[in-house]
Write a structure and sequence with these properties.
163 residues; 31% helix; 5 strands; five-stranded antiparallel β-sheet; single chain; alpha+beta
Length: 163
């Protein structure tokens, strides 16, 4: 897993809520393999990155959302014939502005994410990930990627207190 500059993240900024361009921006990104262990790796990456950005107090909420977004990408967005040792079909991007933090997960599917209705099956052991994302993030959304990039990005935004 490595960190990449914000140049690579420019396509991800399309479709996100407007952000003041004058605000300072930092970004980090990591590639995630097609294995469920990638969820743990994503949480660890998130913890290290938030610590570097002095945002450790947001770790619990952000890590929960990252876990759900990565799990959804691995479970629903990879073709069924994707080898589980494929190097990096999913990418996690973290972007920090003065008053906002965005977690974005890029995957190869163009299928839109759908949150289940709460009444659908309250006893189900899975299927409520996007409801958790909606509960813990200030907003979330998704958009298809264009150009040379295939797939989509699912993002969650956290508002940060300004001093």
């Amino acid at each position: 897993m490595g960190m990449n500059g914000s140049t690579m993240l420019e396509p991800l900024r399309q479709g996100l809520p407007p952000i003041d361009p004058a605000a300072v921006s930092t970004a980090a990104s990591c590639a995630l393999p097609a294995r469920y262990e990638a969820v743990r790796e994503a949480r660890q990456f998130t913890g290290r990155t938030l610590t570097q950005w002095n945002l450790s107090e947001r770790f619990d909420d952000v890590a929960l959302v990252v876990s759900e977004l990565v799990t959804n990408a691995l479970r629903h967005a990879l073709p069924s014939d994707t080898p589980r040792d494929e190097e990096a079909p999913v990418r996690l991007h973290l972007m920090h502005w003065t008053s906002r933090l965005v977690c974005a997960v890029r995957d190869p599917s163009r299928q839109n994410p759908v949150a289940r209705e709460t009444e659908e099956d309250c006893a189900a052991e899975s299927g409520r990930g996007l409801l958790l994302v909606e509960s813990f993030a200030d907003s979330w959304g998704w958009h298809p990627l264009a150009g040379a990039l295939n797939g989509k990005v699912v993002w969650a935004l956290f508002r940060l207190p300004t001093d």
